[in-house]
Amino acid sequence: MKIGFIGTGVMGNAICLNLLKAGHDLVVYNRTKSKTDNLVAQGATWCESPKKVAENAELIFTMVGFPADVENVYFGEEGIFQAAVKDKYLVDMTTSKPALAQRIFREGEQQGAKVLDAPVSGGDLGAKNGTLTIMVGGDEAAYQDLEPVFKDFGKIVHYFGAAGAGQNTKMANQIMIAGTMTGMCEMLVYAKKAGLALESVLETVGAGSAANWSLSNYGPRILKDDYTPGFFSKHFLKDLRIALETAKEMKLELPATKEAEKLYETLVDERGLGDLGTQGLIKLWWN
Ligand code: NAP
Question: Residue ranges of the 3-hydroxyisobutyrate dehydrogenase-like NAD-binding domain (predicted)?
Fold first, then answer.
């Protein structure tokens, strides 16, 4: 199947490499063109706009940064919906708003396209290793058609229901991560102050009932002073805001998630450290 991919950043680029490895014909577009160079060198074809990608592929994936980027890529002047998309598959993998996923679905339906929201979890390493978890909402028949393609870069793929259900599942995931990231940082801050050997603490805590993904993936990076982004702090703050905004619409209060939002706001908005990985949260305590 001829696949188009828009947004070849940390995640998109790694997913594209797995799609190429699986033998797919790939056309690509990214705002900063140089981030597609390695893909073109491996056989992908560059297109100069989202519209052109949509004209040249049967299945179009998008994985950009923020909901405003998603809007631009679908509804902008050179956007996907400016192309003839009848009978094409449109799949947004950006972590974005459930309501925006529903809007894209409605517009797609009007134009005869098959639309899915399919955000992922598993981080930069999951994208590189082709082991992502993929949470899908939208057109169920399209999901059945595309399951083999999802398996080219994902290990676990689940369909959750109508448009927006994939994004809602991802928000549930991020609410959990709010707890594991803040828990991991406060655990390390406490252990350091108590004078404990931090490598041993990570190993021991990570082997017991406090084991979790944030601890095992980001704890070691913190001890090596490695704050390069697997997952940008600015993107996690975006996710916390979407989760809290959507919860508010459901008349739900999530006080622990709200606290995590405040901490990441301090890191990103006040300290200007949004381009650090989410493990950079520790910098609120350690310089
Ligand atoms: P990223 O490296 O910033 O990638 C996003 C890419 O989209 C960038 O290359 C950006 O181009 C491009 N882009 C933005 N707006 C565009 C537009 N209008 N047209 C074309 N390209 C556009 O971020 P990422 O880490 O890959 O994350 C992408 C999404 O996946 C985010 O929503 C994030 O929350 C989510 N996510 C990330 C992870 C993770 O661990 N990294 C895990 C799960 C989900 P520029 O190069 O010009 O900025």
Answer: 164-284
Residue-wise pLDDT for 234-283, tens only, equals 999 999 999 999 999 999 999 999 999 999 999 999 999 999 999 999 99
Q: What is the pLDDT of residue 46?
A: 98
Q: 2-161, superfamily in CATH?
A: NAD(P)-binding Rossmann-like Domain (3.40.50.720)
Q: To test ligand 1's pocket by mutation, which of 5, 6, 8, 10 has the most ligand atoms within 8 angstroms of CB?
A: 10
Q: Where are the domains of the chain?
A: 2-161, 169-284
pLDDT reported for residue 224: 98
Contact yes or no for 6/61 (Cβ under 8 A): yes
Task: Compute the distance between CA of residue 187 and CA of residue 171 in angstroms, rounded to an integer.
Answer: 24
Q: Considering only CA atoms, which residue is closest to atom 42 of ligand 1? A: 123
**CATH code of the region 169-284:** 1.10.1040.10
Say yes or no: CB of residue 64 within 6 Å of ligand 1.
yes
Distance 207 CA to ligand 1 centre (A): 33
Among residues of the chain, what percentage have pLDDT more than 90? Answer: 99
* Residue 76 near ligand 1, beta carbon < 6 Å: no
Candidates 52, 128, 170, 238; catalytic one: 170
Phi-psi domain of 7 (left: phi exceeds 0; alpha: psi -120 through 50; beta: other): left
Q: What is the pTM of this model?
A: 0.97
Cβ–ligand 1 contact at 241 (below 6 Å): no
Q: Is residue 287 very low, low, confident or very high in pLDDT (cuts 50, 70, 90)? A: confident
* CB of 62 closer than 8 Å to CB of 70: yes
Secondary-structure breakdown of the chain: helix, strand, coil percentages, each rounded to the nearest 5 = 55, 15, 30
